[in-house]
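BACKBONE STRUCTURE TOKENS:
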Amino acid sequence: MAILGIETSCDETAAALVADDGEIVSNVVASQADLHAKYGGVVPEVASRRHLDLIAPVIEEALSGAPEPDAVAVTTQPGLIGALLVGVSAAKAFAWSRRLPLIPVNHLHGHVASLYLRPLDLQPPFTCLLASGGHTMLLDVTERAGYTVLGTTLDDAAGEAFDKGARLLGLGYPGGREIDALAQRGDPTAYDFPVARVPGLDFSFSGLKTSLLYKVRDLPAAELERRKADLAASYQRAIVRALVERLEAAGGGHVAVVGGVAANSELRAALPDAAFAPLPLCTDNAAMIASAARFVHPVAYPDYLSLDARATA
């Protein structure tokens, strides 16, 4: 059995073919990062229109030279509603035209399921840190069909904190990549940024972002330029410290990290024994959606024609 996965929840138009044993047959991602860079972040309407341009050729490329899929999987929630609708509509049309079953997938489950693809093929149970541009969560994963939420962010997600921090420092988009690169030249102990300690296993990054704002405002332009790498390194260190401390507080013997922030070099160095999603599968992709679909009940033809997208989980 082979599953065609389709992902359009934000600004990546993606399609992939995954075998039922977790082998990736193809994985195509068309990023819109350059398109949104001039705005400093994703513009929902722009993203939706670009998905319309890319969805057909991306699916065609993913299936080029590959066997016909036996089922179609698509991200239905959460995400930008206009972007999600493009993927859901394309998936419905593809599945209906071939009388194939359709499998609705939660985007967050997809990130966790990136760990179930070969060659990693991680087996539960484990504690999972999901850190991306839109979500920061601690999950207790006991089976591949789902998870239990242990903690989540009360305000900004970690990836959002990176993006906003990058804008304050005058860096490009995506912010996490830009701060990670600049931080390599800075001193992470130069500035003491706060790490919020909220009850339970939840996260909070709004105070950290505000602290960086004040430091940037207080520095003269020339001094700011000279200390930018130190600011980036110290800010990154605070975000990573917040993530690691909460993960350690959750306990558990086996630890895994997924989502776009899982690509951060300092986070990977801080958790040398953790299982990380492979770098190509950290950011949004369709292979992870097809992977999750292996553990979700499909909707038979033609019942899925009434399937809808949802912006929230």
About this structure: Strands lie at 2-7, 12-19, 24-31, 71-77, 102-106, 126-131, 136-143, 146-152, 255-258, 275-276. The domain at 126-276 is CATH 3.30.420.40 (Nucleotidyltransferase; domain 5).
